[in-house]
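Objective 1.3, modelling of assemblies. Example input:
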Amino acid sequence: MVLVTSSSSQFVLVGAVFLACAVEMVEALTIVVAVGHTQGWRPALRGALVAVLTLGALVAVVGPALAHVPLDPLRLVVGGVLLVFGLQWLRKAVLRAGGVLGKHDEDAIYQRTVEKIGSDASQAQARRVAFVLAFKGVFLEGLEVVIIVITLGTSARRLGLASLAALAALVLVGGVGLIVARQLSKVPENAMKMTVGVLLVSYGTFFSGEGLKLRWPGDDATLAVLVAAYAVVTLLFVAAVRRAKRTAVGP
Amino acid sequence: MKSFWPVRVVGGFARFWWDFLVGDTPELFVATVTILAVVALVRLTGENALAVTVFPLFTMTALGLSLWRARR
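Predicted structure (tokens):
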């Protein structure tokens, strides 16, 4: 039983980190691909690589430092952060699925990036801009993933596993993304975002509850129940938002 | 006039966390803090079963209210 519940919570942890990393990488990759196509792959990949190394260094420095913080206060604070963050992701995903907010448009991001580079006069300056754009794209998108890796990893005392899940997503999604290049807009980003939101809110509830010394019935198995319950309620919210939008527009 | 660099760094750090946690959905931040405070109080009274029940219920209510606010 202990083995089953422990592996189910690890599965949720790996799933949350992997999907969060994949979602954020779609936008980062769009920018890198746009830079690579217009200014060559050298400044694009160099910018992306420097950003990934910087993000990795952040995890390597901050993660182990947090491991020395007592577990209960750490879980309360981190659980609270995960709750807020997860609710923000869920809110956005539900509003997008319900048609209230526009879907994330990778094609528009690609076009904006190309125009940004194209507007620069000299070749050297354009290459510098290309490097900075690729770096910023990967770094800013990756920062959210780093926070998820550090918060989930340290609370579950599984920083290594969380980092590995992020690395696996980076290699897998990055590799596939570079091959399919311009088809990134076909990735079901919103569904992935919604899944991550559900997982983050579930983990946030579980960890902050542990930090408050709640005794969850079923211990780690509660996580699976929370994931299922939050997923069902989220789908009900999507249906409600869609219905409200249809009513507002009229027949 | 440029400010002293440590002030800029601390200001930037604080701004980052403000945007990250509060951003354009302050209601979710306030709701989370309130939920944690209420659950802590319920737990202090020794009502563990009540605390584990209301925690996810309050969380989903907060999301529902935030969605309702966005639809208005």
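The longest helix of chain B spans residues 48-71.
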